[in-house]
Every structure is written in C-alpha cells, then in structure tokens.
Amino acid sequence: MTLYKQQAENGLSLVKQAIIGYITAHPEGVTNAQVATDLLLESDFEGKHQNYLSWSILGLLVNEGLIRYRLNGRSKIYFVSDTTD
Fold first, then answer.
1. What is the pLDDT of residues 8-60, one digit of tens each?
2. Long-range pairs of 27-30 with CB within 8 A, sequence gap ≥ 24
3. Does residue 85 belong to any structural domain of this protein?
4. How many domains does one find in the chain?
5. Any idea what the CATH number is for the domain that residue 48 is in?
C-alpha cells in the first residue's frame, strides 16, 4: 500500500469517527447540512455550497450499517444505528 493511500484511509477513518460521534451526541438526528457546517466540512467550489464530502461520507456510513436515516420531506435526518437494526 502506498503512503498516500494509507494517509487517505487514516483521514477517512478519522472523519467517519467524528461524524459518528457528532450524530451520537444528537439523538434527535442531524442533517447533512448540520454535519457539514458544525464539523467544518462545507464545500465551497465556485461559490456553491453543495456539501458533497459530508454527504458522501454519510452514504458510506449508511452502507456500512453504522448510521441510518429517516426522510423528513425532501431532507434526510441521520441517526446512529441501533445494534438491533
């Protein structure tokens, strides 16, 4: 494994842990916008705030079964998954 790949994996792991910790601290659930803003993960490309980074990592965590979401209108509210889910 290259040094760069290892650094990227380490960084991703740290960001995932931070997001899970943040969601755990908010049992009422959080949106992608809250995660991006509060954890300083907001994207700003050409003046547009799309927050794809946090959205992508939330997707990874959902796919790994570590978090889940509930639809609230057009928004998703994210929660830590219960071990019984």
1. 999 999 999 999 999 999 999 999 999 999 999 998 777 677 788 999 999 99
2. 27/79, 29/70, 29/77, 29/78, 29/79, 30/77, 30/78
3. no
4. 1
5. 1.10.10.10
